[in-house]
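the three lines:
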Amino acid sequence: MNTTENIYSLYKCRVLRVYDLIEDVKLLLFRFENPDIAESWTCKPGQFVQLSMPALGEVPISICSSPMRRGFFELCIKKTGRVTDKIHELKPGDFVGVRGPYGNGFPVDEFEGSDLLLIAAGIGMAPLRSVFMYAVDNRWKFGNITVINSAKFGNTLLFRKELEAMRDVAEAENIRIIQTVTRDPDWPGRVGRAQEHIKHANTDPEKTYVCVCGPPQVYEDVFNTLIKNNYDPRKIYVTLERRMKCGVGKCGHCIAGTSTFLKYICIDGPVFGYYDIISTPGLI
Amino acid sequence: MSDTMKPKVGIHGLTSCYGCQLRMASVQEILRVAQRFDIEYWSMLSSDGTIRHVDIAFVEGSVTTMADEEELKAIRENADVLVAVGSCAIHGGVQGMIFGEEYRKVFGEIYGNCTMDFEAKIAEPIHKFVKVDHNLPGCPPEEDEIMYYLATFAMGSYPEEKDYPVCAECRRNGYPCVLIERGEPCLGPLVVAGCGARCPGHNIACFGCRGPVPHGVAWFDSLARTFREKGMEKEEIKARMEIFGRQYEKMNEMIEKVFEHED
Amino acid sequence: MQKLIYIFWYIRKMRYVKIANEQIHDFLNQLKQYGKLYAPVKVSDKFYDRKEIDDVCDIAFDYVRTLLPAKKYFIHPKEKMFDIDIENGTYDEPEEKIEPFVLFGVHACEIVGLRILDGVYLRDYVDTYYKRRREAGIIIGLSCLPDDHCFCNLRRSDFVDIGFDLFLHELPDGYLVRVGSPTGHKIVDECAELFSNVTQEDIAAFREFEEKRQQMFSHHGSFDNMRYLLELTARDELWDEESEKCLGCGNCTNTCPTCRCYDVQDIPDIDGKTAERIRFWDSCQFRSHGLVAGGHNFRETKKDRFFNRYVCKNSYFYGLGTSYCVGCGNCTYFCPAGIDYLGNLLRVRSASEPEEVVHEHN
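prediction for all of em together
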């Protein structure tokens, strides 16, 4: 691997584990080959990496593990195209190239001392899991926590089993986990869209930070419900997706915004506040 | 990849000049290509006409006879991946220029009342009959693209197809724009890139041999408006755009729209 | 902070000399000792482009714009980023020997353009490929007179203080030369016999040239409120009408001195053992620019893409306190559909119908 200061150079990473999560989505655990990198590499919840498959190309992927875990990281990858098809063929022991972490991440330092409400729709739990795991690892820094994970069907709920398995910890730690589906008549649990369960959260609207991630069409309803329930719009954050080619504010593929608020989502985001979102056409 | 895992390939020609197959056969690295694939069938190079199951079938030419249509369907049934090669297969080609009502008339003029042992029909692109997985554009395709497509297939993936026009390559190569400078009816803005803007590079206006940019971003209407402003008549514009774009859905409608506003 | 100190250093050390017309060819020949010389030459009936110069007599001093902006020397239209060894998963930077080169005859707007590219390619994460070429390039600026499409005056990029090694201002009998960098000083010192002192007449002529130039611009005033007006007029019919004309060819972005979007592609070798990672100029006018995994497109329609360029170009570049657009007029001049970028901005600014601008090339 090149050791010069080329920002596009890659760290060699070894695949350690591959889990099937839901159809077309896998969770991969990686380790850095170079011990110095493994030792020094850090990230923030909500940041992403550029993952390279040799001869196929690079894709930006949100880190979905807790930054507290040194030398390792997990990526949750949905099969959507040429590169991700091949990523799904990876087996433990295979190598990939990774660079990053990039992006601003969630302002978790600012979150300290407040309640946390995480709202995921579709595969939105992927980036939010890093925030959730970070909060669990630093439990004493935060107040009450609620996770709302929603999907169309029970078998498309991302991290469903993991969240179910955390039930005991959750109860002991004032964490409420709500998993809900919208179109599955056979699902024994809660039904309805994510926003319909905001009222069941254990968080105090006055002192809660909210993180939302989902497909573009869910945001408006989620925002409206949050505000109606007295959540502070200044404390609502969203993480966005684009197909970054560089991840470092050069290639222009993720430029979004208007003439007074033009942003590279890769370096100015991918996390944006509620007011950025509503005042900037094209952001979501 | 071990030899037993070499992808099986079939290369087929329907109604066409066989130029695409010739181009594929004459790539400089043909021997290295042959090492990476098992070539099961190649209509230009072998008289063996049996269609066997292949991983990837490349199909050149348009569907112009009933026999073509049947052959194409058989190819599709026996291929995991089907690639349309060249303008005839992708857009119907030059022969696809005679279309609709006009076809009977031209057919009558050429063949009169003579009888033929095949049933001829309007030349149409293969996607009208079977599902096409990938398009390898060109007339014929360029060597670098052929190699890129083959290399991605050989590694079990597939190519990224271009969705931008010749103008992009013309500018990247620093060629003067013949449309702006001399008002020549260059079709560069409509036509899918890949040729490196060969004709404009020789000071010749692009006449669109590679066919329109895919995914509905070939703006026949805007270019017709531009040509009209340079003093061209509707029929002239149509004639030029029809050479390779006759069967592009909405082409006619798009051009008519421009002139209807002004009449 | 370091940058700020450099700026003061340059300005404090500003030095003016004169070169007479008779000496200019000698000077250009001498420039070749500093690296390959590239300068504008006439490449066709109407167009100029920068080419490597063999005979300095070929250089066009009175060109207005080149087919491709100076960015092509720093961000190559197509370049290899890595040689990839697929089996070992290694990515090696190709060994590229960067030789020094001299760009002669760069206009003020393009120098501002390069500084904007610096702001993007050298900020936070430094783009190695760009930086190496930028360090190897010597920039010799040249004064110019505007044509109908030029509006650098409205963009405050009609005059540059830094960003060049030497800047030549036309005088009736030669050029007034501003020295803008240590390299510029060195060149003047080493070619001392070609230069003379600036006289009172030269200063008067310089002033006259600048005044004449200012008067030649078709439009005056300021575009500072353009950002807000663009946002406020985003729903105007103007954008429907204008984007309808657009061919989506990407000429506007490729010929723009500050458009810098690129795409990356891996090209495998047929043996399946090696590959190349290449990058090449991309354009926000192309369909796939705003496409993301799963097929959603953030700039779905031609109008979205069309308006995006206006927004992007007119947004604020914090590094220089200007917009990303430098007012060079290339996007209008090189638009095959004859879309008048400046005209559209003027319509946004004043709401009244623009004066008919007759395009030379139509």
